[in-house]
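Hi everyone, sorry if this is the wrong subforum. Our group has a chain we'd like a structural model of before ordering constructs, and none of us has done structure prediction before. Sequence below.
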Amino acid sequence: METFVLPHSGKEVRLPATGAEWELYTVARGPCARAARSLTTALKKACVVIDKAAKDGFRPNEKGLSELYEKHLVPVMSKYADLGAYDTETRSHAYAAMERVVEVVVAR
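Answer:
Right subforum, don't worry. Here is the predicted structure as tokens:
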């Protein structure tokens, strides 16, 4: 897991960063590493939006998280679907991480 410091709150969160942590099909090491990096980058972008919203006094609700997920993660998951990036496990890791960010930044 990678520690990511949220830029607006300064809080730290742990995010999946490797193919194994994302539960990708890790037999394809090179492509899997690229997919994991891309997923983590997309997740970080969504987390920054959540962090900024909390700073501005908003608590992202289920609909807001779904919209962020669709905007930032689904395109990457679709691109690497052949490596398992669109499987249930990967989707669960992404969504759980976004929910952890909400909990961390709202509990200031």
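For your construct planning: The first helix runs from residue 19 to 22. The mean pLDDT is 93.
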